[in-house]
Amino acid sequence: AQPKEPALPLFYGWFLISEVEEKIKCSTMEFLKTLDTLEAFKKHISEFTGDADKEVDLEQYFQTKAPLHCTTEFCDYGKAEGGKEYAEQQVVKDSCGTGTELSVVGLIVTPRTFGARVSLTPEQLLLWPTGADKLGIPPADLPGVEALPVGSRAHVTLGCAAGVEAVQTGIDLLEILILQQGEEKAVTVEELELGTLSYMGQGRWYLALREPVTCDATFSSFSE
Ligand code: ACK
Questions:
Q1: Which helix H or strand E contains 177, and what residues bound it?
Q2: ipTM score of the complex?
Q3: Catalytic residue among 44, 117, 153, 155
Q4: Ligand 1 pocket test target in 10, 11, 68, 133 with most atoms within 8 Å of CB
Q5: CB 41 within 8 A of CB 205
Q6: What is the mean pLDDT of the segment spanning 128-154?
Q7: Of 9-18, 19-28, 179-188, where does mean pLDDT reach its minimum?
Q8: How many Å apart are CA 218 and CA 224, to the nearest integer?
Q9: How far apart are CA 188 and CA 200, in angstroms?
Q10: What does the alpha-carbon distance between residue 186 and residue 197 come to, in Å, rounded to a whole number?
Q11: Ligand 1 site-directed mutation target among 12, 62, 70, 74, most atoms within 8 Å of CB
């Protein structure tokens, strides 16, 4: 009989430690509250509600997905391409259970997702799979993704609108970064205490944090 292959997890990633998770949840909810009250946001409310006269409570609109993490490799228990090769890398095996500091540099809000943009260090990039920035996205749908630096997709999903899968956060982030690099510059809407808020069209908002937020995290695999 063939020796049984060890099972692959659903995904690998950095998981925020619980104290940090609570802190991030609170501070990002505060940001949603602020955004909700801005006149600039209200002007584009129909992109969230489908109706300019309807109000939206963003804190209710996004459903939080626990545990908060930054995905490196989505293995889907072996069904996703490249999962086995990733799991077999020495650096992946050696890193499981080790701590690191994730640097959150921005927040994104779209009608679909709410997420934190993570800026990876060269050491963290060793755990970032090649091609992960494009994985799961038909390239034709996202022209310009090739030009973005490696690791651009790194994020923590903070919440999703009803019926939206978490995988969408990375796609929304890439879309925003492509727009930022393009000819059309974002409209800077407001200087907030937290940072600079920009509107990117079609309900897409980006907050560039004045100060990056450092989050203690542990690298690990995750299975349900
Ligand atoms: O927010 P996320 O990075 O988006 O964390 C979850 C995690 O795996 C568990 O579902 C991410 N995920 C789901 N499908 C994919 C995919 N095809 N490519 C990359 N990441 C994915 C999801």
A1: helix 167-181
A2: 0.98
A3: 155
A4: 11
A5: yes
A6: 80
A7: 179-188
A8: 18
A9: 9
A10: 10
A11: 74
**Distance (Å, whole) CA 197 – CA 192:** 7
Asked if residue 119 lies in contact with residue 154, where contact means CB atoms within 8 angstroms, the answer is yes
- The alpha carbon torsion through 185, 189, 191, 192 (nearest 10 deg) reads -130
- pTM comes to 0.95
Please state, as a whole number, how many other Cβ atoms lie within 10 Å of the Cβ of residue 187: 11
**CA neighbor of 95 nearest in space, from 72, 64, 62, 118:** 72
Q: Which amino acid is at 206?
A: Y
CA-to-CA distance for 146 and 131, rounded, in angstroms?
Answer: 10
CB 219 within 8 A of CB 13: yes
* Pair of tokens at residue 159: 């919440």
Distances (CA, A) of 179 to 16, 66, 182, 183: 29, 29, 5, 8
Ligand 1 pocket by C-beta < 6 Å: which residues? 10-11, 71, 74, 135-136, 157, 166-167, 169-170
Q: How confident is the model at residue 2 (pLDDT cuts 50, 70, 90)?
A: low
Query: What is the 168 CA–ligand 1 centroid distance (Å)?
Result: 8
Q: Which amino acid is at 168?
A: Q
Annotated catalytic, 155? yes
CA distance readout (Å), 96 to 49, 83, 184, 223? 42, 15, 41, 14
Report d(CA 5, CA 135) in Å as an integer.
24
